[in-house]
Each structure stands twice: as C-alpha cells, then as structure tokens.
Amino acid sequence: MAEKYSRYFVLAVCKRIAFPRPPLRKLDSVVASQIHLVRHGEVFNPQRVLYGRLPGFGLSDLGHEMARSAAAELVERRRSISALYASPLQRTQESAQPVSQAFELPIITDPRIIEPTNRFEGLNMRGRSSALKNPRTWPWLRNPTIPSWGEPYASIKIRMLAAMSDAYNSVESGDVVLVSHQLPIWTTHLAIAGKPLFHDPRRRRCELSSITSFERVGNRWVETGYADPAADLAENATDVGAV
To answer: Number of folded domains in the chain?
Structure first.
C-alpha cells in the first residue's frame, strides 16, 4: 500500500513539473479594490467668476489645507493606494500633490476627468451682476436637462466611467485615487445609482476635497461611501466652485 501511494506521489510531482500552471493572464490578475473620486479644494477666485476650464485658477491657502485633509483621510483608512490620477487643470493637480507625497506616487494626468465645458466661463453667477440675469444668456438656458449651456451630462458620464474602468484595471492590487471636479463626480454618483442625470446643482453632495468611493461588484460599480474631511475648513471658504 505504501509503495502504491509513493508511486502516485512521484507521478503527481512529475506531472506538476512537466505541466506547470500557466502564468496569470491580465484578466486574471488582482485589480484595484476601490476607486476614490476626490474633489479639489477651494480655488483662489476673488472675482467670484465661474472659472470652468479657464487657466490660472489654482488653490487658495485654505484650498491647500483642504487638499491635505483629503490626503490625511486616505492615509487614516490604512488602505494601499497604487495609482493617482488627476484632471489637467491647475486646481486638481495641486489638490493631488498631498496624496502624491503621502503615498509616494506620481500624478498621472487624465483629461477624461476634467471639468465640463461651460458657456458661462469667466462670468459672475451670483448677486446683482449675475450672468443669469442678462437676457443675452437666456438662450443658453433653453434646456437644462442636457444641459444646453455646456457638455451634456451623458457625455460626462461616458468619459468618467471609462476613466474609472481604465484606472481600475491599471494596477494589480490596491486602490486608485482620481482627483476631479464636482459635476463629473456627482454625475458619476447619479449614473451608478441609476438616477436621472438632470439635477439641481444646489443639491449636489460633493463638497470641496470630499471623497466618494466605489468598488466593483461583478460587472457593475457600487458606491461604498462618502467622506467630507474638510467640512470644518469649508466654513471659512469664500468660493465653493462652479455651478
């Protein structure tokens, strides 16, 4: 009996040597555990204009502090962060810096997570001089469900989900951080939640330097949490971002 088992053992060993397990394919490898969409911090905007994609709008001193709060929140979670992406705009690149330093990661620029286009760029949207009170701008508001004044919500959804999927598959393990903007992040939230993309901008749950997290369950995304680490700092903010 012992001789019989010994023969089986030798055959098994030889079989393993002769037919080793194939290496893991890319599709079999372990991918990111979670995707974290981080909004930028407060922007220095003394003229109170809608800056959109306009150049030269970086973070205020308070905005830098907010960005550090977001990075600290990610560190406190004790999760491995394997890659860091940011929109090409100055405010998101600066907001990604504390995360880059905390996790020793380079910032990869992804234009797909940029702020949407907006015809109101450079105009003041509040007070007596609000562009919304100018009859010349009223045709831009003809269809808020698209919206007619900028990039369609459907377009934002497509590019954001594509960027998330590519980021998800870009690493073998760990989480990925994408530093983006309020409207793209909120549109992503609505899309994944299965809600209409048209919404009231005043009701977005996406504060400055907030973190909205997602994970992959089968073939779909699921939102796993929302954090507002800069909530205390936001009380002193004078600029809350684009509409």
So the answer is: 1
